[in-house]
């Protein structure tokens, strides 16, 4: 059950590690593109695939970590996560317009999830760790991705 606490942050953790490695080396004039693609690949791709697998195969445990006894929508959430995860992993092979599409999709989804978590906090007084701290991911990741994207495309 301990791994459930770090799982939502694995994309951010991998992004930070790989970004430090990229920026501490001899980076070229393409560093913004490389960092943006690392962000998309890790914070959308890896995170989405991980969340998808977790929601699909460990749905009840995930629901409990969010503060629910069970949730009949774990399977659907899992396939949504898995879908944008796979598309995020494919992003480096496509154009910046494709990158924007997956950033926008994953951001809208995450912000919607974040609003649902806030609703749970207010109405149900649900202060479970994966219903509260996850708000960093729900709102911080979309903001970071959009800032990186618009910084890159100008």
What does this structure look like?
With 154 residues, the protein is mainly alpha-helical. It is built from eight helices and no strands. It is elongated and about 50 Å long. The relative contact order is 0.15. The mean pLDDT is 92.
Q: Topology as H/E string?
A: HHHHHHHH
Instruction: Tell me how many strands there are.
Output: 0
Note the beta-strand portion. Answer: under 5%
* Largest sheet: number of strands, sense, barrel closure: none
The level of helicity is: over 70%
Radius of gyration: 16 Å
What is the terminal-to-terminal distance? 43 Å
Classify the oligomer. Answer: single chain
- Poorly predicted spans: none
Molecular shape: elongated
Gist of the model:
This protein has 8 helices and no strands. It has helices spanning 3-6, 10-24, 31-57, 59-66, 74-90, 96-124, 129-132, 135-153.
Topology:
Layout: H1 3-6, H2 10-24, H3 31-57, H4 59-66, H5 74-90, H6 96-124, H7 129-132, H8 135-153
Supply the key terms.
80% helix
